Amino acid sequence: MTIELLTHQNETVLGLQFPVNPDLQCQLQAAVNARWSRTLKQWIVPCSEQNLKKIQAVTKYSFTISKAVHNYCQSRQTLPVNATPPTKQYPAPLVVAQQRWHTQNIELYGRMRTVLHLKGYSASTIKTYSNEVSQYFNELKMHDASKIDVKRVVGYLEYCLVEKKLSEATLHSRLNALKFLYEQVLQYEHFFWQVPRPKKHLQLPKVISEETILRGLMSVGNSKHRAILVTAYSAGLRVSEIINLKVEDVNKHRMELFIERAKGKKDRIVPLAESTLLVLRAYYQEYRPKHWLFEGGAEGEQYTARSAQIVFKHAFERLGLSKSVSFHNLRHSYATHLLEHGTDIKYIQELLGHNDIKTTLRYTHVSKKQLRKIESPLDKILRTAGGPMLENNVNTKPTKQSKNETNSSTTNP
Fold this sequence. Notes:
This protein is an alpha+beta fold. It has helices at 22-32, 49-58, 67-76, 93-98, 103-118, 123-140, 150-162, 168-185, 210-218, 223-235, 239-243, 274-287, 305-316, 329-340, 345-352, 357-360, 368-372, 377-385, 400-411; strands spanning 2-8, 11-17, 35-37, 42-46, 64-65, 250-251, 256-259, 268-271.
């Protein structure tokens, strides 16, 4: 690996050049937030002695470090211990947007975030609601949101659907955020009773075949990456549940995995497959994680969801899967394969942590076991009649002689 000092967009960075290695790329992204520069045609990270040490820790390549890098890091040592190199300051988009908001809306935005925190909403929900309400305030400009009536809200949602062409899922998210704003923060009771909701698109889960999953898992050479994917599929876990696993959550005596504070702040226990335990044992002996089961580049640092998704992409993109297939499809595949092997739908609901059985019933629509039981009426007619297959008679017209033969065979059996 060659490491040199570069300047990119008025920022001093380390330029990294090394052979193509997806596993190392994932480790660098997780450890030092490495990113690919299209202009420089190489990986770059902010230049600091700390980042240099992290890079050396996550790779087994031999290093060639330019003298300029050493000189730069040496000059940084003259700074105070807690000082950080100056970085370019960018204005926060929200601050710029708030300059065009009504003063009451700025105060209302802060109140909404406070209520979200006090009610114990997850960080992802708080981020989503904040973004949706910000878009709403951007459209209102200098109009006070507390004085907007239901008709204007309905008009805004119609504008989002027709003019901005938002999907039904995005519109539902925005509607939920506005409902929280008006009914939970402003205390306008039943404010959204008159607001119609768009019909949701019933999207079936995409399932990866068992053979493809096995080939994908076997193609992963890095023991940590293989452990992440094997654990996710064998237990039907979300990416957030994978990265939040702790070492103590693996109970090898009872062969269980403890999933703490999953979606909806629910705990649950799922079976630990014997094959998964073997993979986890090999990973543990190599990496020795302390707290998080899957650590990032630095010791004690939690693995990121983005890194786990990149691991999935590198493992399965060579198998010809659609680009729309993601890490979450391992969970869909787990549920569908359980159903095809005869597991009761009620148990699958508990394993996945679904509140409503209707959510789990989606997998009955994609299960091959159920589809194979259905026989086409055409196949049944041909099988019952015992006649020739249709492809043998394509583009052929019955002659007069054949017609007579047919009549003869009918009258004289």
